[in-house]
Design goal:
The chain has three helices and three strands; from the N terminus they run αβαββα. It is of the alpha+beta class. Helix 1 crosses helix 3. The longest helix is centred in the first third of the chain and has 14 residues. It is flat. It starts with a helix and ends in a 65-residue tail after the last helix.
Length: 145
């Protein structure tokens, strides 16, 4: 299928800008949701990029998900004549992004606090606890035949 160069540039520039692309598996859909080109052209262009190893593809619930890999970023820069400073949104690192901590760090226990299972008081249950049945809690039923 012959795809016009302007449509190819629209799809490639959107893919490079975002770093990922999503499209339904609908060959008869007149337009893609995000790009003003027919959906079949998006599917075929991305199929070509996947076969060249420039894009990673995931298919789930009749939707295609594509993400640019490092080779794809280089190819898109060459094709769109972009300088090295431009990177896709998915490849950008957020400056100073540290996860917020809520509560103490894992493994730290305040002084004098015991384990959740009651390890500080001689086990989980009191000393007089016994199982109600003689089976010891293995499986279902008592097997009274």
């Amino acid at each position: 299928m012959m795809i016009p160069k302007k449509d190819k540039i629209l799809v490639y520039s959107y893919l490079f800008k975002e770093g990922c692309l999503v499209a339904p598996k609908d060959f008869y859909k007149p337009k893609h949701d995000e790009i003003d080109v027919p959906n079949i052209e998006v599917l075929l262009l991305m199929k070509s990029l996947v076969s060249r190893g420039l894009v990673n593809q995931t298919f789930n619930w009749q939707w295609f998900y594509w993400t640019l890999n490092d080779d794809g970023v280089e190819y898109m820069r060459k094709f769109l004549n972009l300088p090295e400073e431009y990177v896709p949104n998915t490849h950008k690192k957020k400056a100073g992004a540290t996860p917020a901590r809520v509560g103490p760090t894992p493994g730290d226990k305040p002084e004098g606090e015991r384990d959740a299972r009651g390890a500080g008081r001689g086990g989980g249950f009191g000393g007089e606890y016994r199982e109600a049945s003689g089976a010891g809690g293995r499986g279902r039923g008592g097997g009274g035949f």
